[in-house]
Amino acid sequence: MTEDQTLLHDASDRYLRDSYDFNARRERIALGVYTDPQHWRAFAEMGWLALPVPEILDGLGLGTRECAILAELCGQYLITEPLIDVLAAVSALIAPSPHAERWLGHVVGGELITVAAIDEGAGQRSKKPSTKLTQVDSGWRLTGSKQWINAGPSATHFIVLATVEEGFAWVICPRDAAGVNCEDFPTHDGRGGTNCAFNTEIEENQILLSGEPAQAALDAYRELAMILSSAETLGAANAALDTTVEYTKQRVQFGQPLSSFQALQHRMANMLIQIELTRSLVYAACDAADGDTPDQSRFARAAKVKASSVGRKVSQEAIQLHGGIATTDEYIVGHFFKRITALDSWVCSRGEALKEFMAVSG
Amino acid sequence: MNASNPYPGDYSAFRETVREFLTAGLTPELARAGERTTSVFSDFEAGRQWQSILHAKGWGAPEWPLEYGGTGWDIQQRYIFLEECRLANAPNPVMMGVQMLGPMLMHFGTEAQKSAYLPGIISGDDVWCQGYSEPGSGSDLASLKTTANRDGDEYVVNGTKIWTSMAHYANWIFCLVRTDKSVKPQAGISFLLIDMATPGITVTPFSSLDGEIEQCQVFFEDARVPVSNLLGEENQGWTVAKYLLEFERGGQHFTIDLKKQLRKLRRLIGSEANAAAEDPTFVYRIAETEIDVLALEQTELRIKGTVAAGEHPGALSSLVKVSGTELGQQCAELLIEAAGQGAMPWQSEVLSPEYEGPTAAPEECVTTMAEYINSRSTTIYGGTAEIQRGIIAKHVLGL
Question: Touching check for A7 and chain B: CB below 8 Å?
């Protein structure tokens, strides 16, 4: 890490350690509050939401590596607020839009929370969305429905992927607009989800991108989402390992700490080995993206595949090595496991990433 | 820690120099010996010849300090040199002298010892083998029982060493021997340099699973060794041996060879109608392995970055040893699956660099089975994968 990156990490880590309490999180989720307004305001004030926004648009102009630092912390502290979602949307969908100035200030200021809406149900991801943006007399109309929008309940606005005549369009749409019917539901990762039906009028400045630039934005969004979800998985897996190491040192059975048993030591060593290998690949994917190198697509997919496999395995092992306590809701380890599982299929699954890795590797 | 290459500078001229040297110096026979290498050891004579060519060029021991005949290259140049040698199929000289004993001699040796032994090591004229393991002392090395009892100006050595690679070619052996039985095991060990021609030493080579002879057992029966052949102080042998681990802190580079294996695999399944190529599950496994190799490569780069910043990579080295060797086994396994029955013909003479005759196995499969067999030992020698995991558990996780 550079000196600036270390500063960003340390300051962010300090804030989350001091104020992001696991028990408060549980109570809040039980009430259906997935984004704590105070936290979101703090994120905005600390400049987190402006991180990937170019300086010319009044942002900090920082890169994927810096976003990944935050993503790792999101995993470590089990942040339920849609931070990586908004970072990816801001960077790939809003900042490149000709209407960026209309929206960006409100998003990085924390007043609007924008979450991308892509999925339309099982098996639909790789196809053309059936949600359509069509021209009508009065302007534009968005029709169709989106399903399983992770962190949807936290969103004030959805950025909807729709089909238009010339391909795709990204349309920003308030969840409380007339003709938008949302149904929220709780999710296992504590962020909530939303199904949403659209039959609503759209103004010109809500169409963020259309045609070729929209396709490019989809690619960029997916690639950034792969890297950030890998980084969040890395942070969560690392925290799951740390928790496991601490617990096995304390827990006494057969008259000695669990950590003294070689069978368990080697399993924890394996967890560490795999986490460090993943870390190397995630950081390399960030560097490739920030360096705009020809390898960036390949690295993003490699990181996603590796992080998904390792995250899954490490979080399963964390539960097993704890024993019964890890199967309770009060204990933190199972929550790393659940969040990692959700991240696995968010935007791009491990299987999709693997197939794409093969395609870009030639 | 930054994962990007810590040496972004322009090394293309250096790389070109190395390539030119390899084009000129690496004869087709030597390259063939390199290509037909199925373990860490190449054909002995080819390796020896290559060491003398390297030495003549002044590149006999790139890792050593300049004053002892090193090259003065930085870590990236050393990496490029290694990479180019591997890609060009240069054979591996027997490494126990340059890579293992050399650093220990430089650190612990007397001036007389350094001038007596270092020149023969770097020129390849002396061939050293390593006498550490014993039949009853493998992973628990400190339990070793070969004794050296002081008698005037000599030690009288009795006992036996096993897994002594290349002892049948070696004219010297460096040994860990017990000089004090009354203290805790590690504290009673000394490090001795022993001439293999010493009366009382016999060598029994034995075949490995692939039918080749690399391993030996060495027996000592009242072998008399001058006290001046002690490296370090008496009973300091454990410290001397452990120092080598420190010296290796530049990190090991497994990915060069792993990428070579993957390229071979691609060639193999790309040739004719290979059954494995038609199997989508096999193709996915290759892609997953490629991703693991990419992750290891980036980890090796991280270690280089740490070393370049003057820090100690610590147990990341154990991590690389475990992953590098296990990934090598994974690649060997993919290769054996892709080769199928084509890898089964057993024809030892094919491995000889001079062999020009027909091969029972397809050309691209002649080494596949031997490589697969020998890959099993990579997680056993040099500290088993279990020992490495123990190190990680203790020194990184604090268990």
Answer: no
Q: What pLDDT was estimated at residue B352?
A: 87
**Interface touch B3/A284, C-beta < 8 Å:** yes
What is the structure's pLDDT at B1?
A: 34
Instruction: Give A124's pLDDT tier (boundaries 50, 70, 90).
Output: low
Domain ranges, residue B272: 251-395
Domain spanning A3-113, CATH class: mainly alpha
Same domain, B280 and B373: yes
User: What CA–CA distance (Å, rounded) separates A225 from B121?
Assistant: 54
Tally of structural domains, chain B: 3
Average pLDDT along chain B: 92
Mean pLDDT of B99-108: 95
Cα A65 to Cα A127: distance, rounded to the nearest angstrom: 30
**What average pLDDT does the segment B219-225 reach?**
98
CA distance A321 to A151: 30
Q: Where are the domains of chain A?
A: 3-113, 116-210, 214-361
Q: Is A6 in the B-facing interface, judged by CB distances under 8 Å?
A: no
Q: Is B102 inside a domain boundary?
A: no
> Which tens digits make up the pLDDT trace of B73-87?
988 899 999 999 999
Neighbours of B122 (CB within 10 A): 23
Q: Residue B315: pLDDT band by 50, 70, 90 thresholds?
A: confident
**Is B257 part of a structural domain of the chain?**
yes
**A116-210, which class in CATH?**
mainly beta
Which of B319, B398, B399 is opposite residue A273, by nearest beta carbon? B319
Q: Is B45 a catalytic residue?
A: no
**Residue B342 maps to a domain:** yes
DSSP string, B137-194: BSSSGGG---EEEEETTEEEEEEEEES-TTTTT-SEEEEEEES-SSS-GGGGEEEEEE
Residue B303 pLDDT exceeds 70: yes
Nearest to B393 among A265, A283, A286 (CB): A265
Report the pLDDT value the prediction gives residue B383, as an integer from 0 to 100.
87
Q: A225 with A299: CB under 8 angstroms? A: no
The single residue of B35, B83, B248, B290 carrying the catalytic annotation is: B248
Is the reported ipTM for this assembly greater than 0.85? yes
Contact A268 B323 (CB under 8 A): no
Residue B68 has pLDDT above 70, yes or no: yes
Q: Is B204 helix (H, G, I), strand (E, B) or coil?
A: strand
CATH number of the domain that residue B282 is part of: 1.20.140.10
Question: For A277, which of B2, B299, B386 is closest by C-beta distance?
Answer: B299
Chain B contact for A250 (CB, 8 A cutoff): no
Question: Which phi and psi angles does B350 have, rounded to 5°?
Answer: -60, -30
Q: Do A357 and B323 touch (CB under 8 A)?
A: no
- Average pLDDT (B176-194) is 97
Could you say which of B298, B389, B399 has the minimum Cβ distance to residue A259? B399
Instruction: Decide if A269 and B393 are in contact by the 8 Å CB cutoff.
Output: yes
Do the chains contact at A284 and B292, CB–CB below 8 Å?
Answer: no
Instruction: Kindly tell me the sign of the dihedral angle through the C-alpha atoms of B242, B244, B249, B254.
Output: negative
- Number of CB pairs < 8 Å for A and B? 101
- The CATH code belonging to domain A214-361 is 1.20.140.10
Question: Of B66, B93, B120, which marks where a domain is finished?
Answer: B93
Please check whether residues B233 and B174 belong to one and the same domain. yes
Q: What are B337-396's pLDDT values in tens digits?
A: 999 999 999 988 888 888 889 999 988 899 999 999 999 999 999 889 999 999 999 999
CB within 8 Å of B14: residues ≥ 6 apart: B77, B80
Domain shared by B211 and B261, yes or no = no
